[in-house]
Amino acid sequence: MRTHTVIDSPIGPLTLVGDDDVLCGLYMQTRRHPPAADALGEHVHGALAETTEQLGEYFAGERDRFTLPLAPHGTPFQLSVWDRLRAIPYGRTRSYADVAAQLGRPSAVRAVAAANGRNPISIIVPCHRVIGSDGRLVGYGGGLARKEFLLSLEAGGGQDALF
User: Fold this and answer.
1) If you ran DSSP here, which 8-state letter would residue 34 be given?
2) Which of 53, 108, 141, 156 could form a disulfide with 32 if both were Cys (CB 3.0 to 4.6 A apart)?
3) pLDDT (tens digit, 9 = 90+) per residue, 37-76?
């Protein structure tokens, strides 16, 4: 059964969506590709407690790796990109070109960027760790200020960086 809950975070409210308590969506309040309201399922206060706990630890600087079962919905290519994103180490970044090359598809930079932008499980599938080839912060569905905050948090900059 699909359910959702909304939790507070230093970057604003986060909507967690689960299929039988397995995380399939994590959405910021404002984002470029929001899910349809009917795709969220029933609102259940306190659902996805383990996800909530691990996110709290992440934002407190106490967790650098998530150990949650995930069930993102996407095309086979999108799933391969999102899997590759999970391999980017905490506090590190990769370019879209790096991700495309790691997938064995060096000419698929735009397709990687599109899949990155459609990532349904922000933060835990760390699309914020993907930057432009020139090192600039580009293309984040939750806004560049949130991307900068998350990267600063992971670099040891703490929660006071932006919000």
Assistant:
1) P
2) 141
3) 788 888 898 889 999 999 999 999 999 999 999 999 999 9
What gap in Å lies between CA 118 and CA 110, rounded to an integer?
Answer: 12
Of residues 121, 159, 127, the one with CA closest to residue 143: 127
Say which CATH superfamily domain 2-59 falls into.
Methylated DNA-protein cysteine methyltransferase domain (3.30.160.70)
pTM equals 0.90
Residues of the chain with CATH 1.10.10.10: 76-154
The residue ranges of DSSP E strands in the chain, in sequence order, are 2-7, 14-19, 22-28, 42-43, 94-95, 130-131
Catalytically active residues are 127
Dihedral in degrees, nearest 10, Cα atoms 90, 66, 142, 48: -170
Distance of CA 41 to the CA centre of its chain: 20
